Amino acid sequence: MEYSDKVMDHFMNPRNVGEITDASASGMVGNAKCGDIMKVDLKIENGIIVDAKFKTFGCGSAIATSSMATEMIKGKTLDEALELTNKAVAEALDGLPPIKMHCSLLAEQAVKAALKQYYDKNGLMNESNKHLFDMLEDDAHDHGEDQH
Amino acid sequence: MEYSDKVMDHFMNPRNVGEITDASASGMVGNAKCGDIMKVDLKIENGIIVDAKFKTFGCGSAIATSSMATEMIKGKTLDEALELTNKAVAEALDGLPPIKMHCSLLAEQAVKAALKQYYDKNGLMNESNKHLFDMLEDDAHDHGEDQH
Amino acid sequence: MSTVKRVYLDHAATTPVRPEVLDVMLPILKDQFGNPSSFYHRGQVAKKILEEARETVANCLNAHASEIYFTSCGTESDNWAIKGVAKALEKKGKHIITSKIEHHAVLHACEALAGQGYEITYLDVDGDGLVDPEAVRAAIRPDTILVTIMMANNEIGTIQPIEKIGQICRENKIIFHTDAVQAAGAIPIDLSQLPVDLLSISGHKFYAPKGVGALYIRKGVRIATFMDGGAQERNRRGGTENVPYIVGFAKAFELAMAEMAESTTALQALRDDLIEKVLKAVPYTRLNGHRTLRLPNNANFSFEFIEGESILIMLDYMGFECSSGSACTSGSLDPSHVLLAIGLPHEKAHGSLRVTFGKSSEAEDIDRMVDALVKIVARLREISPLWEAFLKENK
Amino acid sequence: MSTVKRVYLDHAATTPVRPEVLDVMLPILKDQFGNPSSFYHRGQVAKKILEEARETVANCLNAHASEIYFTSCGTESDNWAIKGVAKALEKKGKHIITSKIEHHAVLHACEALAGQGYEITYLDVDGDGLVDPEAVRAAIRPDTILVTIMMANNEIGTIQPIEKIGQICRENKIIFHTDAVQAAGAIPIDLSQLPVDLLSISGHKFYAPKGVGALYIRKGVRIATFMDGGAQERNRRGGTENVPYIVGFAKAFELAMAEMAESTTALQALRDDLIEKVLKAVPYTRLNGHRTLRLPNNANFSFEFIEGESILIMLDYMGFECSSGSACTSGSLDPSHVLLAIGLPHEKAHGSLRVTFGKSSEAEDIDRMVDALVKIVARLREISPLWEAFLKENK
Ligand SMILES: Cc1ncc(COP(=O)(O)O)c(C=O)c1O
Ligand SMILES: Cc1ncc(COP(=O)(O)O)c(C=O)c1O
What we know:
The complex is a heterotetramer, with two copies of chain A (148 residues) and two copies of chain C (395 residues). Chain A is an alpha+beta fold and 148 residues long.
């Protein structure tokens, strides 16, 4: 696997590893069957993500994208954070090997899952923003390739 | 094809090449389809083969066995000549590659064909020696291998 | 890449060409370029070299030279054995027995046949990766035409009871193929004793180059051609012969046999040292594969709560070249079919590491490797939500 | 063997590895032994080398790198192309069109399919060995799934109207494979223009080693795998990659393309000189194959009344290494199927000689060769009963 220097840096020195014990919201996605699980804790104050921490079981790019995704949403408003896409995460890492693109989806999904919990808990979910969480409906980790 | 020195010698310097214009008998066997034809002329005096000549269209071992077979029957009685076998010819040449053993059959056959002509012409053929010419019945050159 | 000392510990994936092997190959690559099928002297020289190599390989297996057919790799040998028997015996039946832990060369060849109306029984293995010979017997049906069970597994190193399985096949008059790609050159194979009909080998597992293998076909075994073409290999395998590699293959095999006693001792010492130290130093770690019925150079671990690729990248960074699962699926997202077959749950199957020693391995590498692993595993567990959950549960 | 100067004139059978090719192979054979499927740095280096080679080969053919698949030889490429399409399209139909003068790799692959219920049409060729494109059109049926016609013949050198045949296949939406083993490196092949879907190449015909080839598979063409196994070659051809040979193959192909204009001129001059002189000096001799639509390095003669092997032995003795028919059948008793197909009677088919020039050929060899041939033919005719009969008839 040829990883970019950025990926290697975020893998070897991941930012924001850990738990937030008094987290405003948490999200956990993925499953062991597919080989990666990501958990994100967010601390939200006045509509701003003031802290984000993660724990990830997964391959190099799963860990690197977790690190990068949490970096990217820190200090952002909820609306801004909801705009985070897996493509943006992968680009911020100078790209990922094609076979690893699904890992960046995991990071987007984990952040959204945490935000969804926050929206649900705080009654922020409504008809106009509901669609932003659509991706959590189907299992983004269902690789769908024919296995042989 | 790895030929013995003897084969090479008899191929490069074949003995008894030619025709006997006043031959006592001649035999010609093989066919162009199989890639070898051999013709033997014999000069027979008092039941002794005093001369033998051949012409052969064929591979190296066809020519070498022709040469050797004519050498082996020269000076021999008819009975002795009839005992010539392809195995003996091949052995006299220090062996032939397995795939080329059929060529030595050609030489035995050609000698027998000439002798048969002599026996027929001179009324020497009888019930007790007829079987010696059996091999001329079926085409020894029908390789019988499955061709693919 | 960093400039640390690089330690190659993936000899099951491939090995370098050893100098003695290159030495016998070079003159042929340079000068003896004749085509062994050619009539003239140069061709016959090549032919002789080829046949001498065949003799050497036959001697290594205690077989007859006429039973050795050169191929382009272990995969070809496996494909030929399986598809060749399937085709030759299709009138007799269309049932094939194999195991769940075969190499993909065997499994995918079987799957290809499954798509053509053959029925494949994939036998389970036990927790150590062993096939039960009695399970082979139980699976045999009147339409069974082939049993194919590998001699030693490429991931977990487990060595199968080939003699017993072969005996059962023989009793039932069923052709028995074994993929000995990992076994050849590593453990003794005596085909005058072993009831094996077909056996696959690949050179690059024992210091010959990649791209040359052999299939042993016991005299009298019915098998169709796979590579149809010219009259090479006694009409059974077309394609102009790769003489330099074949000669290298024979030389490497011969050396491996000559050095086997010595190298087995050395490799086993390294293997056992690593296994013992890793199991001691890294908690929640298991050894995959049979503890003793295993290839002398193979160690395979599952580190709980963490994922294999992460371990590999860190090891690579620290200079250790190992693999997780088999090399040819390392680009894949699927966990190893072998580890699932021995009963590991997915997360443990994902967290495996294969270390395979070889000629270049040194005892001093072991401690450095264990140190590295301790650090890496600790680090990755710190990041792992599974570890976090486990700690909370067990507080 | 005598100590005369040895002149190799059998470049269609195989060629030596040229020094520039050995030079790029050696460092890989010695040091870069990584398995391209391996995760760590060493494996990725090998992977990169492999992909660069693929790019080079693609450039030589004006194709995309993703359309190039490395194989172990021309025979494998042919088998894969033919059996792969047959399998992938078996539901569509089971009819395949080929010609009577294909290499055994194609003919025997077709015969293997014939044994499995496929129907093969073997097209006739004309006296020059040309396939009539209209005959291809006429042979197409609703159940035709593949046309396989070689680009240039290995025995008589005739170059087929591949573009026209491909056009007809395309009009009829039928997959078209061409065996370009003799053509690649000898004549230009531009796959951005040529309507060819599958194309086989082998390295040892252009100064790469024996045991490496490629199959070009045009994007979108449906073809099953042949060598089932690991995920190598984008999941389409299992087996650990033979990196050194693949690199040598790419280098040799690249050099052949770069030098093509020059070498074509040189080879054609030798070829034409030999043809002219032999036809003049040796009576009752015919040139087999098309006079101009032929490979630049190929001359093929039939000498009436004498047999080919005898000619070969004597030539070999005098230092000239040539062939009669194709190398891989030279151990066989059958006359060349190609010469029979162009209409030669058996005795002429048996009396053929193929001379194929290459890099080592020199103009001065021609006259010596002609001298030798004059003597040999005269000598063998003296021994020949056919010549004797002919002389008597024509007295
Ligand atoms: C036209 C043609 N096709 C296929 C082949 C087979 O190639 P290889 O010997 O590399 O398998 C050859 C040469 O032997 C050939 O000349
Ligand atoms: C057990 C086993 N079988 C088959 C193969 C395939 O061998 P090759 O890569 O030479 O095709 C391998 C190695 O890759 C192997 O370990």
